[in-house]
């Protein structure tokens, strides 16, 4: 979502870090470029003005101009103001009310309201252990009620039986009563939407709110609509009073202006973001982590959390034991590639690693993307168990058979085998060394080693602290030397920055993150 903005801001601010001292003119020139970048990202003008004034007020003071590292200080100030603009501390959905707790979902047609209702219901059921009842109040859109009923079956959440001829208010009252009699904790009310804002829509939503007195009123807005999403939020807040915002399609290639403007313009927190079409593609909105990603500082906290949520503990333990002995066959490689897919693919993982923006661009130019990962998984899936265990069996005739079965070519199989050999060599080296970089990360987050006293949260570090952390993790961390030819699994010329992990497709050795062993407990 923030790719273009991140590239622009990173380029502007990196120019400041290369200077030994800064003048007020230097800061003002950089802020003019920041202002242009934000406006091009479709951020509301009033938000841009406030943002740049806050940064200028702090950046032209003695704190920066007389600092030993003025460039880093400016980046820290931009990061702090960005976090403040996005909402400071993240806020989630609350349940401090007598059940059943009504949650009213509002928004325009096509914003993803019904799908988001099902995603939230699934999340509340699985993570918060709540009994949820969903009800569709959309009596106008064809098959809207049936759509929610089908989604309810898919996510395992109860839906209110459909009764023809009832109005939205009647359905809402029936849903609340059914939830009370059925012992449900939460009742989610999916209201009707319109293509544009109109009085009929607002009147209906206001009437439903008056009849049900919802604890949460969540606006579902499409992040790709830019300033229109901000105008929609203002209109709904003025008429029905919002308590939070759910932004959908945050995985798209939009400019990100809606996300940066929503909180500042409406004063309402962004509580959740949709990151895909699947019913589990819903994440909490953490302003500090989003700010770090925008400024190219990564999001290691979310990366570890995502790994913890997707790892199969038994599989992780078995693989960790094999890797400890230096064993790494093609089945293990497929497991790691599948693990990367679960964590958001190559781009998703790299986007959470500090300083990887340049490597992401190099990978894209080299044609290394998630489609390549899928083809590699298909190639390994076309092999026999014996061939996966002993790749030396793969002669020309077998390669032709595997290529036909996977829809690839023998050349693609040769590339995969070369990649596997390089990764296997590195796994053996890592097995002989202790205290690797990701092992340290595991200890930092209390995974398998406990949280050291006083260890700061990387998501709240300023750029200078994060840079020092990366330096510590890369220096003296027991990282093995690279084999001839560069980074295993990556095209020639793709070189992640110093101090970062030496192989990306192999991320996950030991069950998701090499060096962590089996820190995650049961599969979630």
UniProtKB/TrEMBL annotation:
CDD domains: SRP_G
Alphabetized SMART domains for the sequence: AAA, SRP54, SRP54_N
Source organism per UniProt: Bosea caraganae
Keyword Hydrolase carried by entry: yes
Physiological role: Involved in targeting and insertion of nascent membrane proteins into the cytoplasmic membrane. Binds to the hydrophobic signal sequence of the ribosome-nascent chain (RNC) as it emerges from the ribosomes. The SRP-RNC complex is then targeted to the cytoplasmic membrane where it interacts with the SRP receptor FtsY. Interaction with FtsY leads to the transfer of the RNC complex to the Sec translocase for insertion into the membrane, the hydrolysis of GTP by both Ffh and FtsY, and the dissociation of the SRP-FtsY complex into the individual components.
UniProt subunit comment: Part of the signal recognition particle protein translocation system, which is composed of SRP and FtsY. SRP is a ribonucleoprotein composed of Ffh and a 4.5S RNA molecule.
Keywords: Cytoplasm, GTP-binding, Hydrolase, Nucleotide-binding, Ribonucleoprotein, RNA-binding, Signal recognition particle
Main location: membrane
Domain SRP54-type proteins GTP-binding: 269-282
Regions of compositional bias (Gly residues) in chain numbering: 506-515
Gene Ontology terms: cellular component: plasma membrane; signal recognition particle
Family indicated by similarity: Belongs to the GTP-binding SRP family. SRP54 subfamily.
Region of interest (Disordered), residue spans: 500-524
EC number: 3.6.5.4
Name of the protein: Signal recognition particle protein
Membrane topology: Peripheral membrane protein
HAMAP family: SRP54 (MF_00306)
């Amino acid at each position: 979502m923030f790719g273009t903005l991140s590239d622009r801001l990173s380029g502007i601010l990196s120019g400041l870090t290369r200077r030994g001292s800064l003048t007020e003119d230097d800061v003002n020139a950089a802020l003019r470029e920041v202002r242009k970048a934000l406006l091009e990202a479709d951020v509301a003008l009033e938000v841009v003005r406030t943002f740049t004034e806050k940064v200028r007020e702090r950046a032209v003071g003695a704190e920066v101009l007389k600092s030993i590292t003025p460039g880093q200080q400016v980046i820290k100030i931009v990061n702090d103001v960005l976090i403040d603009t996005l909402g400071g501390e993240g806020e989630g959905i609350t349940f401090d009310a007598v059940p059943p707790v009504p949650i009213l979902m509002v928004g325009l047609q096509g914003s993803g309201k019904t799908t988001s209702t099902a995603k939230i219901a699934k999340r509340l059921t699985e993570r918060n252990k709540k009994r949820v009842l969903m009800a569709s109040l959309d009596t106008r859109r064809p098959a809207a009620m049936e759509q929610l009923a089908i989604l309810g079956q898919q996510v395992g959440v109860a839906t209110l039986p459909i009764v023809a001829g009832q109005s939205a208010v009647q359905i809402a009252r029936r849903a609340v009563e059914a939830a009370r009699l059925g012992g449900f904790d939460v009742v989610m009310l999916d209201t009707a939407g319109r293509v544009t804002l109109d009085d009929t829509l607002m009147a209906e939503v206001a009437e439903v709110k008056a009849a049900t007195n919802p604890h949460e009123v969540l606006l579902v807005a499409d992040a790709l609509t830019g300033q229109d999403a901000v105008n929609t939020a203002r209109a709904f807040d003025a008429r029905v009073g919002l308590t939070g915002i759910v932004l959908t399609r945050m995985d798209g290639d939009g400019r990100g202006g809606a996300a940066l403007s929503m909180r500042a313009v409406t004063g309402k927190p962004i509580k959740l973001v949709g990151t895909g079409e699947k019913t589990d593609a819903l994440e909490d909105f953490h302003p500090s982590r989003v700010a770090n990603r925008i400024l190219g500082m990564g999001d290691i906290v979310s990366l570890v959390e995502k790994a913890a949520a997707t790892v199969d503990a038994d599989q992780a333990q078995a693989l960790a034991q094999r890797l400890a002995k230096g064993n790494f066959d093609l089945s293990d490689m497929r497991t790691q590639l599948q693990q990367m897919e679960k964590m958001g693919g190559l781009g998703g993982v790299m986007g959470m690693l500090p300083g990887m923006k340049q490597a992401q661009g190099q990978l894209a130019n080299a044609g290394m993307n998630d489609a390549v990962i899928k083809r590699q998984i298909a190639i390994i899936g076309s092999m026999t168990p014996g061939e996966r265990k002993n790749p030396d069996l793969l002669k020309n005739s077998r390669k032709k058979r595997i290529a036909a079965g996977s829809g690839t070519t023998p050349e693609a199989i040769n590339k995969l085998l070369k990649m596997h050999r390089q990764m296997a060599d590195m796994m053996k080296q890592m097995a002989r060394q202790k205290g690797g970089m990701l092992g340290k990360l595991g200890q930092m987050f209390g995974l398998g080693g406990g949280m050291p006293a006083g260890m700061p949260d990387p998501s709240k570090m300023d750029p200078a602290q994060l840079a020092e952390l990366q330096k510590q993790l890369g220096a003296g961390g027991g990282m093995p030397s690279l084999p001839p030819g560069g980074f295993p699994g990556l095209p020639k010329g793709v070189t992640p920055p110093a101090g970062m992990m030496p192989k990306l497709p192999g991320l996950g050795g030991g069950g998701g993150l090499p060096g962590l062993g089996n820190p995650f407990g049961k599969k979630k």
